[in-house]
């Protein structure tokens, strides 16, 4: 599944999706995005940067190291795989692709979407999407 197809699938299959994007953690760049509304490029760039900070910011990496040490985990695999953020009007799901953990899918839905269905559909794409 190419990066554009991952975004397209997310918009089509995740209930009440209003936006989807794919972010490369190595560069912090937005590889693809689709929204139902138009947004300035600077907003989209900030979302990509915030996604990278969420997963690989200094504090997140420190927490990962502490958890791995406490559990005796010696791999350099990332501990945080997924984040769910709710806001007044939206649900934001961020997840590392199973096939390439340095790539994160972000899906944004309306807040009245069924959270269980949103997570189920987003996780299916995260589990099967490849770049």
In a nutshell, what does this entry contain?
The chain has 131 residues and is α+β, with helices and mostly antiparallel strands.
Unreliable stretches: none
SSE order: HEEHHEEEH
Question: What is the C-alpha radius of gyration, as a whole number of Å?
Answer: 15 Å
Oligomer description: single chain
Large-scale geometry: globular
Strand content: 25-35%
Helicity range: 40-55%
Terminal Cα span: 6 Å
Q: Which structural category do the helix and sheet elements fall into?
A: alpha+beta
Determine the mean pLDDT.
94
Count of individual helical segments: 4
How do the strands line up in the largest sheet? Answer: 2-1-5-4-3
Beta-strand segment tally: 5
Would you mind describing this structure in some detail?
With 131 residues, the protein is an alpha+beta fold. Helices cover 42% and strands 27% of the residues. The chain has helices spanning 3-13, 41-56, 58-71, 115-128; strands at residues 17-24, 29-35, 82-86, 90-96, 103-110. The chain has a 5-stranded antiparallel beta sheet with strand order 2-1-5-4-3, with helices on both faces. Helix 2 (41-56) runs parallel beside helix 3. The longest helix has 16 residues, at 41-56. It is globular, with a radius of gyration of 15 Å. The relative contact order is 0.22.
List the helices and strands and how they pair.
Blueprint: H1 3-13, E1 17-24, E2 29-35, H2 41-56, H3 58-71, E3 82-86, E4 90-96, E5 103-110, H4 115-128
Antiparallel strand pairs: 1-2, 1-5, 3-4, 4-5
Helix pairs in contact: 2-3
């Amino acid at each position: 599944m190419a990066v554009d197809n991952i975004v397209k699938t997310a918009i089509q299959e995740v209930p009440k999706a209003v936006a989807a994007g794919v972010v490369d953690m190595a560069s912090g760049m937005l590889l693809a995005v689709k929204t139902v509304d138009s947004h300035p490029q600077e907003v989209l760039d900030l979302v990509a940067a915030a996604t990278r900070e969420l997963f690989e910011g200094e504090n997140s990496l420190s927490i990962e190291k502490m958890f791995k040490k406490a559990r005796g985990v010696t791999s350099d695999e990332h501990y945080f795989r997924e984040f769910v953020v709710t806001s007044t009007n939206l649900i934001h799901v961020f997840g590392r692709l199973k096939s390439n953990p340095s790539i994160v899918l972000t899906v944004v839905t309306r807040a009245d979407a069924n959270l269980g269905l949103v997570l189920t559909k987003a996780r299916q794409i995260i589990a099967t999407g490849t770049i």
